[in-house]
Amino acid sequence: MTTFDVGIDDTAAAWNALEWVDEVVDPAHDAVRLLTIDGMSGEDLEWAEERLQAAKQRLLHHHPGLHVVRAVIEGPTVRQLVEDSRTRDVLVLGGRQTHRFAAAISGRVAERVVAQSAAPVVVIPEGWMRSAEGPVVVGVDSGSAGRALEVAASFAERLGRRLVLLRAWDLPFAQTPYGMILTDDDPNFWREGADLELAAAQRAVHRRHAALTIERQSRRGSAADALIAVQNPALIVLGRRHRSAAEAFLTGSVGERLMHHGTAPVCVVGDVAAPAPATRSDSTVSSGVAAKAS
């Protein structure tokens, strides 16, 4: 079983998040927890609760048997969402596509939660359309992809899509006082290294998801460019390397670029799994991204 925690506010991106969950949820095996934060922006609590009720009714209209609960959480927003993520399965947020610099300085909720959450975080951009028929794509990176592979494979099974393992590579450069210099001019060496990583990733996925259709892609260039170039992906899954929105901005996070310039849902997965709750309550179920029943 999987619980999807969905952040609901008055933005269009938040309602996109609800629409995405409506598309992927399995009412026979999943639960949804609709969240809003009390006391933010001076909003009236009664209005926030009415918005949660409207979101619940929208889900139940399409999935009458779905277990849906509402929760108003005491702020501050980011701290509470991050604390909740320690015992949750998947957190789904709308992503407002402001300029990356403005987002890093002002600390947009999605960016900060992505950087710290123990649970996988799916960010649905403002420009997302509910028509994607493409694959689930996971960025393969030896430094961050281990848990991301499992999450991506589970979502591919749930959605009935093929899984694309994508490894971007390029010739290495080094920063010197005189500028950037090329440190190796043998593209075959780096291409072969990328192919070996992809083969290892495919073996790891196949051991646990033998029936899944898996495709490997090696592309020269930046990871962000390679992922943005994928045609009509249902979901892009990435491992996380950063612990703050500002750090991700300053070091060129792939996830940051996809969140601000892409139109596909992006799932960012930390390297440490959230512990499973000891017991099930009104709003939690056992940990993990369960495959959707056929």
Question: Helices, strands, pairings?
Answer:
Elements lengths: L1 E6 L4 H13 L5 E9 L6 H18 L4 E8 L2 H8 L5 E6 L4 H7 L2 H8 L4 E5 L10 E4 L6 H14 L3 E7 L3 E4 L2 E4 L4 H22 L5 E7 L2 H6 L6 E5 L5 H7 L2 H8 L4 E4 L25
Parallel strand pairs: 1-2, 1-4, 2-3, 4-5, 6-7, 6-11, 7-10, 11-12
Antiparallel strand pairs: 5-12, 8-9
Helix pairs in contact: 3-5, 4-9
Structure description:
The chain is α/β, with parallel strands linked by helices. It has one domain: Rossmann fold (3-Layer(aba) Sandwich), CATH 3.40.50.12370. The chain has ten helices and twelve strands. A ten-stranded mixed beta sheet has the order 3-2-1-4-5-12-11-6-7-10, with helices on both faces. Strands 8-9 form a two-stranded antiparallel sheet. Strand 1, helix 1 and strand 2 form a beta-alpha-beta unit. The protein is globular.
Brief write-up:
This protein is an alpha/beta fold. It has 10 helices and 12 strands.
Quick tags:
ten-stranded mixed beta sheet; 23% strand; alpha/beta; disordered C terminus; 294 residues; two-stranded antiparallel sheet
